[in-house]
Design a protein that fits this description.
The chain contains ten helices and no strands. By secondary structure, the protein is mostly helical. It folds into two domains: 184 residues, no CATH class; 30 residues. The radius of gyration is 24 Å and the shape is flat.
């Protein structure tokens, strides 16, 4: 379970940095500054956490389902940005309301990066016991402030074509959704299973399937026999 959550966090971080590659330098700096300030200021809360508490959070099905809702909303927004950006590149113009929505989605950095940064801060504090927690937090904040613009620049240099970066962003969001389902379901089924089989319904499905197959065979034979 922890491995799946770790992979999910890495995907969220990649999506966040890749999304910044579509922004302007000043928007990238604002996003990096907000992430760095959050990381540096959260150290009093981070030192109160423990591995047992984090494990309890991961085992809380209600909390994980709430997280799944937030994750789903953010993924939908990110995928909508990819689709609208692709449409704009292909058509060259869109209605004003679509352009307004596109701009909002473009400047929306995402909110899931903040839980990822908090989890990273907790892990780093655990990894360096005996050190000044505040100093460790602000060193990590400085790294965050540097890595976000550097990562966005690296994505632009490695993949200069905007269309390819859009495809990569879409794929990463799809993978995030996949791992999000695994991480948030937490071994539970959404619908209670049934121990008995409704044989009449099963027979009806079989008959409908056979009737459809027979009708398709007759249609194919009729068209094949025509000159």
């Amino acid at each position: 379970m922890e491995t799946v959550v770790t992979v999910l966090m890495l995907l969220i971080a990649l999506v966040f940095v890749l999304k910044q590659s579509f922004g302007k330098p000043w928007t990238i700096l604002i996003a990096a500054a907000a992430a760095a300030l959050f990381t540096g200021l959260m150290w009093p809360l981070a030192i109160e956490q423990s591995k047992s508490r984090i494990s309890a959070w991961l085992g809380d099905s209600a909390l994980m389902l709430d997280a799944a809702v937030v994750l789903s909303v953010e993924i939908v927004l990110q995928m909508a940005f990819c689709i609208m950006a692709a449409d704009l590149s292909a058509e060259g113009q869109m209605p004003r309301w679509k352009i307004a929505v596109y701009r909002i989605l473009r400047w929306f950095p995402g909110v899931l990066i903040f839980p990822v940064l908090f989890s990273t801060l907790v892990y780093v504090i655990f990894a360096f016991p005996g050190n000044d927690f505040k100093l460790v937090a602000w060193i990590l904040a400085a790294l965050v402030f540097i890595l976000i613009p550097a990562g966005a620049w690296a994505f632009r240099k490695a993949i200069p074509e905007k269309e390819l970066r859009l495809e990569l962003l879409f794929i990463l969001n799809a993978l995030t959704a996949f791992f999000g389902v695994i991480a948030t379901v937490n071994g539970q089924t959404a619908v209670e299973g049934f121990s008995e089989v409704d044989w009449s319904a099963f027979a009806g499905i079989v008959l409908i399937t056979l009737a459809g197959a027979f009708a398709g065979w007759l249609w194919h034979s009729f068209h094949k026999s025509k000159p």
